[in-house]
Amino acid sequence: MTARWVLGVDSGGSGMRVALVDAAAPPDADAPPALVSTNPVRTGSDGIDAAHLLEQLLPMARSLLSTVGGESLAAVAIGAAGMATIGGHLRAELPAALRGALKVRRLALASDAVTAYAGALGQRPGVVVAAGTGLVALGTDLTNWRRADGWGHLLGDSGGGAWIGRTGLEAALRAYDGRRGGSTALLVAAESLFGAVEGLPAAIYPRADRPAVLASFAPHVARCAAEGDEVSAGILALAARHIADAAGTAYPAGATGRESDGYEVALTGGLLKLGDPLCVPLRAELSGQLPRVRQVSATGDPLAGSVLLASALSTDSLRLPQHSTLFQVSVLEEN
Amino acid sequence: MTARWVLGVDSGGSGMRVALVDAAAPPDADAPPALVSTNPVRTGSDGIDAAHLLEQLLPMARSLLSTVGGESLAAVAIGAAGMATIGGHLRAELPAALRGALKVRRLALASDAVTAYAGALGQRPGVVVAAGTGLVALGTDLTNWRRADGWGHLLGDSGGGAWIGRTGLEAALRAYDGRRGGSTALLVAAESLFGAVEGLPAAIYPRADRPAVLASFAPHVARCAAEGDEVSAGILALAARHIADAAGTAYPAGATGRESDGYEVALTGGLLKLGDPLCVPLRAELSGQLPRVRQVSATGDPLAGSVLLASALSTDSLRLPQHSTLFQVSVLEEN
């Protein structure tokens, strides 16, 4: 059987990862080799810069194809942070550009929440919470998508890394001032990470990556909670509740009865590294809000999700529903 | 009696205001005429730019002096946002520069919280909460200062305008998603102010004045609370509690018994414009936390506070305590 080369792409705040697999070969249990760029695609005032994305993607794709002697791509799936809200230029420019440059026959442009979903649950119905610095929940019954939160660190992302870190730093500064609700354990942790807290505003406000700086404090909140600090445990309990709220809201409409017995919920992303101080209350909250839904571990990451979507696209086995901004599929040339 | 010209300066995020008065004349009940610059003093990576401040201040001061035929200044008081944390260059450069350029004999360099205090309570002991976009509480027994909060919109300023606005927008988006704790009244208000909420992240995150944009939603939270929205009322009740926490923490140490019967607490700044939905729960919280302290209205604004401090400095009647960063007084030349 002829090789059917497909490309998966994951583009986000820390750069771009690209992987090539043969969709005609038996699935490989290991993650495929990936090329990585640590240069995040630029976002301008009118959205994600399509030319800057292509500038990085095309050489990586050509390099991967040349390694295997491939000449065209049966399918490409690109998952990008911001695709749904500021991906207009990608949707307008990538189909023709990729067909021209790489002979791509089918193209999927997906929100990174969709590739996170596909990485975590494949094409099965359920809910995936993608939680790292930010937090978004996405659910599907394979007919429609439902999204909850994902509004960013000033408007939501409740329970995500930046939220936990920010709430922990607030509690540290309450302790410093002597206001109610403070935690001296978090104050000590904040001083160990950032130095004297008088300098904290100057260390955080001028930075462009404020959400990531806030999120860098989240592991300290988890450690303080594990060591018995009640304020920290309270912050993680509230985070767990917010995360379960988002999961419950994104859960497919009408799928609350027996027909949802096979549905699954998975958490994916760096927030899981906080371990038991978050995961124990989160499991309890999820059991309370979604009692009939199985809690499972994510199978793979968003890059694995992109590869899976590209493979499904090339073999006519796509089951996840298309959507005008979350997940747009274009057939550029018949196979 | 010879006129004793003194200058008060208020420098902050919206620009600089400068007023000249004769400290030897009877106090005027009306606010003195002020010159205004709408060009905020620049802040560089190493703090507030002293040269840029002087560039604006000197022409305004000379213009005011020439109007009255004055030739030197008995005292100048400058209140500036950021003086305590990033005012190092101002403390290093302004004394010599102002002595040289304007024959200034005494100089006070104050945090804007200190000039807000002096504007609100004059030189009487107590606590002042300066609340607009941000929030800081400052108290004194005329021996020491105590500060609470004032950490900015990501780390604190709990109960201030940006905090109320952000919390209100979070509740609006909860309603949009269908998560718990949402308010449809706030969702309608957010859409009337910012348009379709799908565009809210793009309308807020790229802006440099994010705290002010968040604070612009606070009056809508107050209006929704006045119209019976329980989520909005809950946000303002929590804001009131945070504000009273800060006031209680900044309250002079040890002054909780009978000796504090004459002490006062005042709120100053734009947040008062939210009216009863905030002020009614705030009065109740303050009565609970500081039962022996009289709640009074602020007498004047931070510019009036600067003028009062400059006058006191020129007449040897300064009672507010000096402090290395909050309130530094220099005698440049004997009167």
UniProtKB/TrEMBL annotation, chains A, B:
Ranges of residues in domain ATPase BadF/BadG/BcrA/BcrD type: 7-305
SUPFAM superfamilies: Actin-like ATPase domain (SSF53067)
Protein name: ATPase
